[in-house]
TrEMBL record:
Residues 11-109 form the PAS fold-4 domain. The lineage of its organism: Bacteria, Bacillati, Bacillota, Clostridia, Eubacteriales. It comes from the Bacteria. InterPro entries: PAS-like_dom_sf (IPR035965), PAS_4 (IPR013656). Pfam families: PAS_4 (PF08448). This is PAS fold-4 domain-containing protein. SUPFAM superfamilies: PYP-like sensor domain (PAS domain).
Length: 115
């Protein structure tokens, strides 16, 4: 089996949305959960190849994402964004090449458990 196919299966088995976005803020990949979230739940269509700002249009969201990506460019490991309506903590995670250069990012979701 091809490596790319194996990686897609792994990402599709992850129970949270994964949307990979390049450094120009263009959506390049959605796992199955992200497709369901954006297409079925939120009503978007054909996001691959479009700006992340097509679905994050609020000026505060745009500034939050741009600020987080600037931190990633300055070698942050991940950046906390907010707690969403599903009570999940949302982080932006860098994706780097073999030289450590930022090639993009994705949102990571985590249940927000109260102690």
């Amino acid at each position: 089996m091809e490596r790319e196919k194996i990686l897609a299966y792994i990402l599709d088995s992850y129970p949270y949305p994964i949307a990979f976005v390049d450094c120009d803020h263009v959506i390049r990949y959605l796992n199955k959960r992200a497709e369901y979230h954006y297409y079925q739940e939120r009503g978007y269509r054909d996001l691959i190849g479009k700006s992340i700002f097509a679905c994050h249009q609020n000026p505060n969201s745009i500034e939050m994402i741009k600020s987080a990506v600037e931190k990633l460019k300055n070698h942050a490991n991940e950046v906390f964004l907010h707690v969403n309506v599903r009570n999940e903590r949302v982080y932006v995670v860098p994706v780097r090449d073999e030289n450590g250069e930022l090639i993009g990012y994705f949102e990571r979701f985590e249940m927000n458990r109260q102690m």
